[in-house]
Write a structure and sequence with these properties.
- With about 290 residues, the protein is mainly α.
- It has 14 helices and no strands.
- It has one domain: MetI-like fold.
- Helices cover about 70% and strands about 0% of the residues.
- The longest helix is centred in the N-terminal third of the chain and has 32 residues.
Amino acid sequence: MRLSFGDKLFNAINIAVLGVIGCVTIFPLYYVFVVSFTEPAEYLRKTVILFPENWSLASYKYLLSTEAFPKALGVSAFLASVGTLCSLAVTSSLAYALSRKRLRGRRLFLILILFTILFSPGIIPNYLLVRELGLINSIWSVIFVSLSSGWFVILMRGFYDSIPDELEEAAAIDGCNDITAWIRIVLPLSLPALAAFGLFFAVAYWNQYFNALLYLNDADKWPIQVLLQNMLIDASSSSLGDVDPLIQPPPSETLKMAAVVIAIVPILMVYPFLQKHFAKGAMVGSIKG
């Protein structure tokens, strides 16, 4: 099929506009990456750096040699790993219980969960609850307030509704109770849903900023996002804590760019390992009839 002149002109304009938008979107990320690997002397010498003459790891070495940055990385890693596991356990178990039609009070529980989606208690009631539980200045407070979401529970419940009841009936004949059937049969079939929601939870926990700032008073317990915010506001490297005096600090801008790269790389590395579960169905070949 031959394209008319108008179609060719439209395609050319469309490609040009999308190319410009793509360049505008990608350039800030590219600039952050390039500046983070630029040699400090070259950065001080040049105004704008599009491609460094000499690549250097000085900013990364300085960040990892500080006292505060490795601690913040450890806190964020703890939140992203333990918090994600806790959130998946709570969300999947609650969604599975709500998907069973024999559960008494099922409709009432669904209404209460929908109510939490429509109406939020706000910051002050949440803070008072965390304080009464004695979790102020505890890392678990950040996990507790983000443990689950009514919207995620409803979505995962819909996924569990698609699992045939014949599978659980067959498991019951083999002597499995509800918990055993959920662990041995339902969860293995739920890997696509668990991978998708796990990625959502991991990104949310890794990017925790406001809750950590609200509930954590000790700077040693701050995650990477709170420390990064202090670095972006502070022109010096004083927010990084004690550093070996023999190490010459790089320019603050290269330190900030290196910190941004370290903050976004872990999530970018996790996504490819979970991507295959998004498009793959769990029920293929599980039951016929």
